[in-house]
Amino acid sequence: MIKLKFITITPMHIGNGIELDKGLSYFVREKKMFKYNSVKAAKLFTENRLFDANTNLSAHEMSRTIIRNNKLISREHCDYLLECSPGFNDYYWNSGNTGKLYVHEFINSNGKAYVPGSSVKGVLLTILGLEKLGIDSDNANIDDRFVILDSVPFDNNELYVEKFSRSDIPVNLICVKPYIRFSLEVRKCGRFDKKGFIRKANEYCQEQIDCAITGISKFKSSDGKTRSPDSYLEVIYKIRNEFHNLKENETLINLGFGGSAWFKVNKGITPLFTPRKRVPGRDKKKEEAHTTYTTTIDKDISHIGWCKLRLEEI
Questions:
Q1: What is the pLDDT of residues 28-39, one digit of tens each?
Q2: Nearest by Cα to 114 from 176, 26, 34
Q3: Percent helix, strand, coil in the chain (nearest 5)?
Q4: What number of CA atoms fall less than 13 Å from residue 190's CA on the CB side?
Q5: I want to staple 235 with a disulfide (CB 3.0 to 4.6 A). Which of 70, 117, 253, 303 is the partner?
Q6: pTM value?
Q7: In angstroms, rounded to a whole number, what is the distance separating the alpha carbons of residues 290 and 275?
Q8: Residue 102 burial (CB count, 10 A)
């Protein structure tokens, strides 16, 4: 068996596809996000006659009513409470933000967030350039099984809500904090080669960092003003420094949401995209990604999804 031992070096988000709506799913109080349980909250609202069953209310009106009366909701009515970053907290309380303020939820089971083995397996396949690690249906052998377990759940104090931006478009994510350790066990290794993987993973990471820097540099600002590609370059340089400081039997991988096309490349082909807007001096033709989701932590710009990985035999 092999243990995959991770430590996050940036925030990391693996979503379950659910968007939490301000008021209808959560609210913020004292820099904490309260994700309330809908069944327990409905019972509470009924007991306190917050809503009249004979009155039709819009989702916006219901949301405002819940937020105005949020002090009725305590920890016992919630699935979980999470710390809010200064960036998200300020964004939440900014009266100029009239949108729904969705928060993308981390994959969880009964409110306990975890890293699914399938997500990690997908990264392994991308790095190795394979379609499968386990049994080949054309040449089936039971000994080729590849079995990877999910991680143990995270403590809530290892998670928080962060606001990221891409080209000034905000997105709010529940993330694992930087410098949090977690692990997954590979119970059946199939065709997974531990020594070969570390070598290929480092080759993959080095190639993608070099390609990203070369590609994004074409779009950096030429007038001294900091724009999205400049910020993206800054975070890539930081990742490159982390890569150069790896120890033996370690590698870097980008896991989950927001790594961008540069770090989800299969077979060395970088996807091309059509820009949303015409940029002066450039034709609106397909080009490589030149920005991704970034945030600011303690005045330092940060990327998303980066983990240091060490493999251990168990």
A1: 999 999 999 999
A2: 176
A3: 30, 30, 40
A4: 16
A5: 303
A6: 0.89
A7: 10
A8: 17
